[in-house]
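The material for today's practical consists of a large collection of protein records. A record pairs a protein's sequence with a compact description of its fold. Instead of coordinates, the fold is spelled out as a row of discrete tokens. We will come back to this pairing of sequence and fold again and again. Here is such a record, shown just as it appears in the course material.
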Amino acid sequence: MIEQLITWMQSAGYWGVAALMALENLFPPIPSELIMPLAGFIAAKGQLTVAGVLAAATVGSVGGTLPWFYTAKMLGCTRLCDFADKHGRWLTLSTHDIDRGLSVFRKHGRKMVIIGRLVPAIRSFISIPAGLAEMPLGRFLLYSTIGSLVWNMGLMGAGYVLEDHYHEVARYIDPIAKIVLAFILLTYIWRLIFFRKTPRS
């Protein structure tokens, strides 16, 4: 699969990088920990430019966040709270949890979006609280761009330096993603066991 991905990215060029990064944010079939080091490797060979790869990847990353953002915005806090009233047990969310979480996000949304874009496993889904909290689109795009730019720059730079060993980047980052996912799963199980429904104030 890797050889096919290299061939396809070489032929598709910057559009291919942008498309893969957009898909990675919608539903990560191929993680950015593989895409960006590979793009850096191709840039190191002189087939693409560093600036072009970074720009394409960041545009793709930010564009890929918008469907989740708008889906959450259309869903809205009221509908989510109504859903939590009926199915909160399995969501492990009460309307009080939702109100409290959105209140925190409205105060610290800038930091949460920027930092969230740098965390494997959850970076694709930080768009959801941003949409629910109705963060202005301009701010969301700005903060997502900053976080995505830093993330993409780090991964691409590693692939550029490592060249033929670009796949080592994914090998080191993959355990971090697994730890984050395990933490999310364990937190969910713990909340499921001890969940108590709290009425909305």
Residues 2-194 form one domain. DSSP finds seven helices and no strands in the chain. The chain has one domain: 2-194. The mean pLDDT is 80.
